[in-house]
Amino acid sequence: MKTQSISRLENYAGMKEIKIADFIISDSSPCFIIAELSANHNGSLERALATIKQAKRAGANAIKLQTYTADTITLDVRTDDFKVKQGTIWDGKYLYDLYKEAYTPWEWHEELFDAARKEGLVCFSSPFDKTAVDFLEKLETPAYKIASFEITDIPLIEYVASKAKPVIISTGIAEEEDIRLALEACKRMGNDQIILLKCTSSYPAPLEEANLVMVKDLADRYKVFTGLSDHTMGSIAPVVARVFGAKVLEKHFTIDRAEGGPDSSFSMNPDEFNLMVNAVRDAEKSIGIIDYNLTEGQLKGKQFSRSLYAVTDINIGDEITELNVRSVRPGFGMHPKHYKEVLGKKSVKKYKKGDRFSG
């Protein structure tokens, strides 16, 4: 059964394009760059609104929220199971307390969506239960993001996919089986608008664990658009991911890391984010297309290539030898591929030293 399921996914032709609000994601489109607000509002609506404006100025295409409450994502239980102890920056906290501190109040969402749209940013969110999906539907979210730790929540993925909107799925904790099940959940709901994000679920993530070659492998293996949800520091990983074919990039974004917050330590400030955006856009310019035709500049440059020239005076009837014809720069004479063909033949023309050889 598993083999059949994987085969079905590999035979899937993939999408030609995915539309998120007014942004088109396709093989030829620029990268869709998301600024993740996460908990970087630090409990202040004013800060959240200011962050949206800064994200626009920094070059983001979208701002992403997270839609949950402590009660919708975990339980208020004080046992060892519910205490963070996995070697993270949040170790020692109980899950309920962490999410109570970090969540984005639902009563802010409408104002945040409106503010983003006024700035020309796409605004969408990661829901963490069905009530969040229903809430986001009322706000006319143009897409959904499945967070890394929710990739195993198949009922949630099915419910999200049933809304017939693009589904962006992070794979930070996913094994192949998890990815397959998540994709099949979307397909069961008739939704093939899927984007898989390579993600390393460490905060911050070491660059040596980024494993960015997976961006291309995920696209080739599952025939979907892919991207990167990045928790490394700096711009190197996003740029490399773009070269490997990433069509979506996501980075946590904060106005000022020094002001703290649950996610601030691995978030980019506006200047850093802008540098990353510019680096990614420059990378896109350099990637180009597969084309063996020469540009006008390259054609001019070809004049400096090699061709056959007379290196001594040659009279009619003289034998063509290595002593009187050579392959030299520039490239206005006969192509060097004919060099061996003409050696030993009698010249039918008179040449002076430096004349282009033409046979």
What does this structure look like?
It is a single chain. This protein starts with a helix and ends in a 17-residue tail after the last helix. The model is unreliable at 1-13 (pLDDT under 50). The protein has 359 residues and is of the alpha/beta class. The protein contains 13 helices and twelve strands. The longest helix has 18 residues, at 270-287. A hairpin with a 2-residue loop joins strand 1 (17-20) and strand 2. It folds into two domains: 2-68 and 103-287, Alpha-Beta Barrel (TIM Barrel); 296-342, no CATH class. It has helices at residues 2-10, 45-57, 70-73, 95-102, 106-119, 130-138, 154-161, 176-188, 213-222, 236-243, 270-287, 296-301, 339-342; strands spanning 17-20, 23-26, 32-36, 62-67, 122-127, 144-146, 167-170, 194-199, 225-230, 248-252, 307-310, 325-328. It has an eight-stranded parallel beta sheet. It is elongated, with a radius of gyration of 29 Å.
Describe, in short, the structure shown:
The chain is of the alpha/beta class. The protein is 35% helix and 16% strand. The chain has an eight-stranded parallel beta sheet with strand order 5-4-3-10-9-8-7-6. Strands 1-2 form a two-stranded antiparallel sheet. A two-stranded antiparallel ribbon has the order 11-12.
What is the name of the CATH superfamily of the largest domain?
A: Aldolase class I
What is the level 1 CATH name of the largest domain?
Alpha Beta
User: Largest beta sheet: what is the strand line-up?
Assistant: 5-4-3-10-9-8-7-6
**Mean pLDDT across all residues, rounded?**
92
